[in-house]
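We emphasize that the prediction below concerns an isolated chain of 724 residues; any contacts that depend on oligomerization or on bound cofactors are therefore not represented. The input was used exactly as deposited, without trimming of termini.
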Amino acid sequence: MLTQPISVSIDLGGGRTVSIETGKLARQADGAVTVRQGNCIILATAVANKEPKEGQSFFPLTVDYQEKFASAGRIPGSFFKRESKLNDYEVLTSRLIDRALRPLFPEDYFCDVQILVTLISSDPEVMPDALACLAASAALAVSDIPVQEPISEVRVARIDGQFVINPYRSELAKADMDFIIGATEKNIMMVEGESKECSEEDLVKAIEAAHEAIKIQVQAQNELRAKKGVTGKREYKKPEENEELLAKVQAFAKDKIYEVAKSALPKHERSNRFEAIGTELMEHLKTAYNVAEGEELEDSIKKLAKKYYSDLQYYVVRDMILNDRVRLDGRGLEDVRPLAMEVDVLPSPHGAALFTRGETQSLTTVTLGTPLDELLVESAAVSDYTKFILHYNFPPFSTGEVKMMRGPGRREVGHGNLAMRSLKQMMPGDDFPYTVRVVSDILESNGSSSMATVCAGSLALMDAGVPLPKHVSGVAMGLITKEGKFAVLTDILGDEDHLGDMDFKVTGTKEGICGVQMDIKVDGLSMDIMRQALMQAKRGRLHILDAMYATMGGAREDVKPHAPRMVKIIIDKEFIGAVIGPGGKVIQEMQRETGTTINIEEKNNQGEVSIFGTKKESVDRAVAWIKGIAAQPTVGDTYEATVKSIQPYGAFVEFLPGKQGLLHISEVSWKRLETLEGVLKEGDVVKVKLTGTDPKSGKFKLSRKVLLPKPEGQGAPRQQEGEN
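Result of the prediction step, given as a token string:
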């Protein structure tokens, strides 16, 4: 058991406690702690360089969360049998920590900081992602790294109408709201999660419940810090400043920036104009500093001038939006950019949609597959399969740039996850047999391509015939605050995302919220402002939904003709063996004869059979075959029977797959027959009625004549053509 010399405990309620301990493990790190709940133990370390790299102009924070398979007593399934690159779950957990912590470092702090969070012991009931940020913040708290204040994150779920903090994994399965909230003692910093169409007020209540729990966890970190005796933060080298140069930059460029900002120019033209002002500024500064013709400004002045110019753009545009209530592209605060959308835009994919909002565009496709295409989602504690997959791609041409093409980065994984969680709320249940893969390729980007993915994904799924009951749309919002004034922006541009104090994405149906991703960069954001922002987001979401319903009012009744056909049927488990046959003989014959793929497994004490094929006729034939095998013959029912062999005393016929009976010669016709020659032959299909079973042998008794008109009197009627 891991025990630490210095520790504090947190009571989560319901007999659950969390302990934070430091002083024994990883002692050469600047800060190191273990966080424990049940058998779940997380080790977090924080290390920062003492000096920034030469010329460093941004804050290089690295956060990696990783789960050791040994923590759950497992060996990795990869070829090398060791942990490799972070999987999507680990990337998403790393992002949750990073997004909450990053705003808490000083703006002028440019030293490299690395935070490593590792699951070293797993508990199948404890969700480690809800404890990871607490561990990371505690590691910073017991160090002298100059972070402003402690932070924590908790999961809040609504289960049976009650908000539960950090519920067990089994409890979470019953939740209709699932959010992770990050906050300091005073301020909300980050929100991420999903819900089954909750209201805006429900979300605010969940945030408030989470914040109360976070305050206790922040106090525990302060207590741990005091117990360790950490009293101050390290000094660090601050960037060089030049007040004279700042005044020159502002005097030359401020009005010019404002003029461009209020001109409502397209993205690239606006960018080119700002770049031209920057070039003019450098020429102006050469004159101001008496630089000889042909010479350049000193590097230190040039570098600072570029920084001051960039900062000036930030403040001028913010002030314009706050004071003039107009935005960079000329829109009002609540205006959504022009919308254009199409479905069935590609001939070969099973579903496709093109969604364009202003200068943001997503081409999204849907592919329908079999249960064999399900995705294995693996973590240390749980390995499970999912049959709904969403991938998001962001090629460099979408922003007019040239970059190396690599695998999906953390941003792509995070955006794709938000879209997946949002659309998943409307996906059909287990009775829908297909594995569904959605792929969003961003062709243009100027603000919230993840929300374009949600809208395009909803349209493409309906185009593919996936029975979504409602459309899901999304909108990205921004917030700018200053000295008591604030402006909430609907459908933000890329530039507005950068300069805002809060950016949040809200997805949902007309009835409620399905997904949220929110990052807050300002202190003291009131819940009243958050409520107003959420209600404004609702209006924007509904506006987009109206356009989506006008484009496609509902899902197609059937999949497209070229899409694979799939049917799921349930049979009694006693027939599973009969469908498979000895050594798989029967199921292999069915697949060979019908050209389908058949998958059978036992679930919930029943046999679940999935039939997959490219032609409806083939699937229907396989379904009939399986139903025949699993059917219980009923006395009095009529069947289409195939003659298998002729005997002197009658014909053996197969009236259900695998079920044969004797059609006695006396039951073939009302007319007395001496032989069946000329009446029946092998391969003939005749209608027969099951009249009973032999009580001793259980053999089936069949009759054909009872289905024929009975002759009147003694004379037998002449057999009509088609009876033979």
